[in-house]
Write a structure and sequence with these properties.
The protein has 356 residues and is an alpha/beta fold. It has twelve helices and 13 strands. The longest helix has 21 residues.
Length: 356
Amino acid sequence: MRVAQIAPPWFPVPPPGYGGIERVVFDLTEGLTSIGAEVVLFAPRGSETSADFVETVGKPVGLNLSESQKRRYFIDSSREAFRQAEELGLDLIHDHTDYNPRGPLPIPVVHTVHGPATRPSIASYRAMSRKGHYFVAISANQQRRFEEGAERDFGSSDKIRFAGMVFNPVDVANAPFYPKSEKQGYAAFLGRCHWEKAPGVAIRVAQAAGIPLMMALRVTHDEEAYFEAVVRPAVLSIKNLAKFVGEVGGKEKDDLIGRASVVIFSSPWEEPFGLVIMEAAARGTPVVAYARGSAPELIVDGVTGFLCADEEEMIAAIPRAMELDPAACRAHAESICDRKGIARQYLDCFKQILSS
């Protein structure tokens, strides 16, 4: 089986810092090649992979662009990737860009759904389903919200064509493990500087719990206003308890997560998949999170972290989470998200689609 993996044009695969989709594409591509699948990765220049590689843009374009510029790069790079995948005679296209070609294709197309269930995305996926495209959800909560939204807004006669649900992969085998003896008594927060990730909540929680907070934030041009209005004043107000370390990757990211005694996942909405939850677990670090979105599917409450109803519960859970067993966190990540296992699930999904 020869499969195309199509990544967005924003960052190389794997990303040097922030880039959740690019990290997922990398681990899935490497997982598939490790179990014998023939994969062609379509991604920006500078990407690294053990699969065959086709460059989609001369350099990663990043996110500091206008919406019209981003849309142009997105459409042009995805269209070209689809065209070349067809030209190469591949058996199946696995797309991570939500690209909707104008007409039907002679190759089956599977889209991993990385975003939330909004009315526009539901309408788009229904239209693509009518063309014969398939979709894979990244959590049961996400799939349910798409199905309920489609039923509520459009009726039951025209559904999204889900081929299944598969968690995002994490390279657990190669993630360094940090036992309790290597924990340094601080909390970590990693993510975008955006209300969807609520870094301000993480600051308040750490402050109330009385522990230092290390914040690895990606701040784009569009996020600078939020950083100046919410994050910077909060960091300055609590002096040495919170430290903004900027965007991190590689060993720096491993150490930031792994040496933390707890990770605060303060996302207040129905997050489709909290990748940092499983990245933390793989390194032996428990997570405190709101009990919403995908978090209840990823965290074993009282074993790999704590699920909380509100900010007060999160504050109370911090010291208890810091006492949890890192080995249990690692074992859980390996059991549900290791990239070879996830790759096998996707390969089974691809085989079912091709056989139908």
